[in-house]
Amino acid sequence: MQLDEQMKCWNHAAVKVLDIRRIVMEAGAQLSSYTLPANGFIYTIRGSAVLQLDGQTYKAERFYMLHGAKGSSLDIQTNEDFEYILLYYRAFLAFPSYRKKWLLAQPEVAPFSLQYGFAPSSPLGLLRYLDELEGAWIQSGSLDLLHTKSLFYQFIHEMMVQLAEQEIKTELADPVKQTLRYIQNHYREQVTLDFLAEQFNYSSRHLSMQFKRQTGHSPIDYLIQTRIAKARNLLLRSDATLSEIAAEVGYSDVYYFSRIFKKHVGISPIQYQRKMREEARTEDRPLVISESSIGRRWKSGYIDYENHYQYIDGGSTPMKRRKTSSSMIMVALLSITMLLAACSSGTATTPAAGEGTGASSNNSSTAVSSDTGSQTNKDNETRTVSTVKGDVVVPANPKRVVVLYLQGDVVALGIKPIATSEVFNGAAYKSELEGVNSLGTWFEPNPEAVIDLDPDLIIVPSEETYTLLKDIAPTVYIPYEKMTTEERLQSIASIFGKEQEAETLINNLNSKVEESKQTLADAGILDKTVSIVEGGLKGMVVVESKQYGRGSQALYEYLGMKAPEVVQKKIDVVSEAGGSNLSMEVLPEYIGDYVFRSVYEGADNLTDDPIWSSIPAVKEGRLIEIDFDFFYYSDIYSINKQIDFVVEKLLAAPRAQ
Are 136 and 145 contacting, i.e. CB atoms less than 8 angstroms apart? Predict the structure, then answer.
């Protein structure tokens, strides 16, 4: 960029001084990889040092001027006491017509992002303006700030005169190098293409084109690859949980992180960890004998269930296969003893614990309950439970229960498990599980942690988790997504012989529902329309089924309230979790007399959005915010609490006409 072009830019620039400071570094001190937060001048006053700006080396003696662009990386190595003034500023082309003309002629150039260094021919003139700038900046009154801007232009004029005298060559900072370095240092933070472009004073399109031309990838692809590489290293070299690793590499949503990881690596994070650690152990033991065919490898489970996309916490620690749990050895010895005893007596054997056989015990002392699908063997204190995987023999009175995801129903039945999958902090039953072991996300539990707990019963919500854990202890698979709340509760109750307790819970819930409906009808609310939404400024998901969660069961299924007609038509025919992602422009058509918005940490603040604020339900105070954690679960314990919340909030809201 020619000097006269720079001068034209300064003539059409709007400028703001952001900071000016005087810094003293002692001999031997270092400054490493400091990222300039704005365009800046560095003017050395005393001593000498080696300065590097984006890898370019400058030998800075007394009175040396260096200019760097926003985002540039600065390194300083001192050999003696070193003092300099650092001046930060922001400048842009103020007049639209000139800015357009400039960008058309030189779209790749950011006029104030040049890098250069030189020894001024008249150093004290520049120092005088910088001293005055510093003094005015310290005063910081309105008049002083105006004086600061005036002095800054005088400083620029003096510097341009001296640049012209010496014919100093200026260089444009390399945006690709800057972006690469920024991503390496800030991959943990929220980074977008627009943010990177703004950071280095380039257009998004130009930065993306230049980056891809030099690296073969877009900036965001490179960001993802950097994060995945860091995550791989943490998975192999630490025992951090999956949620901790996700947060460390820049993902607040561990479920989304798992999906991204699986997309780029081919397997889930926990499968990758297990596979790589197993390979490492094999390499360390080259003479190891192949495994017995009796044993089986753990298969990690992974569920891509769209209704559980948001804020799924938890993690997994690595599974260590270097030892066999003493509890497993005891189970094996006990099984052999029972088998020998059965053979010597000549009676029929009982199905192995945890295996679906499709056969029931014919022991004469078994009491059969045809309406619950369970059988109790009083002599051996076991119960045979009919499941979709066949009959499973479980303890009649289990003491060490592990449950994944379905803990709300278990708690409602008066059972406190020894371990569960992670529970959201806002869950209705969170306090009931105080002191209970956590096993990570419900779709990727840690098998070795389960083994070490020596459970006598495991309850799981998916085929993947069933396959993963069924050889540890008697395991019952509950296909919860295909059941109503009542069906699921009854199925779980049959495992424990608590059918009567389940019936009482269901009757109490039905009574609460009828009372709540009457209360809302008396208040003139029950016949009003209600919508449930989740999202932010870029779009909203409108819930369009009774099975979606976020309060859909409480409102649409139990209380029987209706949505606006355009939504209700879908609710009437949709049997699975369903919703539509809508823009703000069309959202008002889908909002009823009352609106419930699911919110979570980091959710957009919609207060200043004109469309959202103009919706009658919002404008008139009939917006009810519901906590994502609290309304995530659909067990009978949570549904009870959710109905209480919904009725209370509806009664407290202004009445819809």
Answer: yes
Higher local confidence (pLDDT), 110 or 492 = 492
User: What tens digit of pLDDT does each residue of 596-623 get?
Assistant: 999 887 788 898 899 999 999 999 999 9
Closest by Cα among 309, 247, 260 to 534: 309
Compare 91 and 248 and report the one with higher pLDDT. 248
Burial of 49 (0-12, 13-18, 19+ CB in 10 A): buried
Over 80: is that where the pLDDT of 469 sits?
Answer: yes
Ramachandran quadrant class, 463 (left: phi over 0; alpha: psi -120 to 50; beta: rest): alpha
Measure the CA–CA gap between 446 and 423, rounded to whole angstroms: 15
Q: Which residue has the tokens 């230049």?
A: 210
- According to the model, what pLDDT value does residue 171 have? 57
How many C-beta atoms surround the C-beta of residue 650 within 10 A?
25
Contacts of 417 (CB under 8 A, 6+ apart): 401, 402, 403, 407, 410, 433, 436
The two beta strands, 49-53 and 73-78, are antiparallel
Which is higher by pLDDT, 657 or 630? 630
Per-residue pLDDT tens over the stretch 165-219:
776 665 556 777 778 878 888 888 888 777 777 766 666 777 777 788 888 888 8
Sheet holding 82-93, edge to edge: 13-25, 82-93, 39-46, 65-68, 114-118, 171-172
Distance CA 564, CA 41 (A): 60
Reported as half-sphere exposure (CB side, CA atoms, 13 A), residue 404 has a value of 31
The Cα–Cα gap between 193 and 573 comes to: 41
Rounded Cα distance, 226 and 231, in Å: 9
Q: Are 375 and 369 in contact (CB under 8 A)?
A: yes
State which amino acid sits at residue 99. R
Contacts of residue 357, defined as CB under 8 A and 6 or more positions apart, other chains included, come to 351, 390, 391
Computed on alpha carbons and rounded to an integer, the radius of gyration of the chain in Å comes to 34
Please answer whether residues 530 and 563 qualify as being in contact, where contact means their C-beta atoms are separated by less than 8 angstroms.
yes
pTM exceeds cut of 0.70: no
Q: Token match 């280095």: residue?
A: 200
Sign of torsion over alpha carbons 582, 588, 589, 591: positive
Task: State the Cα–Cα distance between residues 363 and 348, nearest whole angstrom.
Answer: 8
In this prediction, residues 503-519 reach a mean pLDDT of 95
Residue 586 corresponds to which tokens in the numbers above? Answer: 């069309």
Q: Which two tokens stand for residue 158?
A: 């003096």
Residue 641, both tokens = 């609490």
Q: Where are the beta strands (DSSP E) in 79-136?
A: 82-93, 114-118
Distances (CA, A) of 337 to 41, 191, 569, 641: 83, 61, 61, 48
- Whether the per-residue pLDDT at 25 is higher than 80: the answer is yes
What mean pLDDT do residues 580-604 have? 88
Q: Is the pLDDT of residue 553 over 60?
A: yes
For the residues 144-150, what does the mean pLDDT come to?
A: 82
Q: Which of 387-391, 419-423, 591-595 has the largest mean confidence?
A: 591-595
- How deeply is 654 buried, as exposed, middle or buried, from its count of CB atoms within 10 A (0-12, 13-18, 19+)? exposed
**What's the DSSP call for residue 289?**
P
- The count of residues in the chain is 657
One-letter amino acid for residue 448 of the chain: E
The 10 Å Cβ neighbour count of residue 239 is 13
